[in-house]
Amino acid sequence: MDREQTTFKREMLAVLPSLRAFAISLIGRHDQADDLVQDTIMKAWAKQEQFEMGTNMKAWLFTILRNELYSKLRKRGREVQDSDGIFTENLAQHPSQYGSLDMQDFKKALEQLPDEQREAIILVGASGFSYEEAAEICGCALGTIKSRVNRARQRLQELLQVSGESDYGPDAISAPITSRAFAS
Predict the structure, then answer these.
(1) Domains along the chain?
(2) Tens of pLDDT, residues 111-120
(3) What's the angle, vertex CA 94, arms to CA 92 and CA 99, rounded to 5?
């Protein structure tokens, strides 16, 4: 270990008691706080080249710990506790082949649009550009882009035979099957 790594290690170890106290104050449970501190130290050790010696090690580690905690909380918010497997047993999913077939139909319909309409709907609808940005990219007036997008949407609805919200999602045959799992 070179001198800089030794100094880094010493400074990091000196902050551990404060780091642990901070983690306990955030979480309230010693075991989870210790896990969070360990994850923080592992992350800091792996990223030590990003730390500038002579700056505030404590602030750097507290920031890593806080960010690590927020990441775990976000992840936990997306997880579902299902230790008994009851939720999993009742899961039903719309068959994926329908989505693939819908996408194939959409691509065919998109190819049938005039170039200007296709370009406009892709810029605004798929690429996330504002109407203003799309108009600038296409070199035309704002009203022209809005008109092209509107005509493209209308034509796609005609080609795909979409009349409303009920035309999206599971069809009439599979809808009762996939929704039954969530009714119980």
Answers:
(1) 3-75 (1.10.1740.10), 96-165 (1.10.10.10)
(2) 899 989 988 9
(3) 155
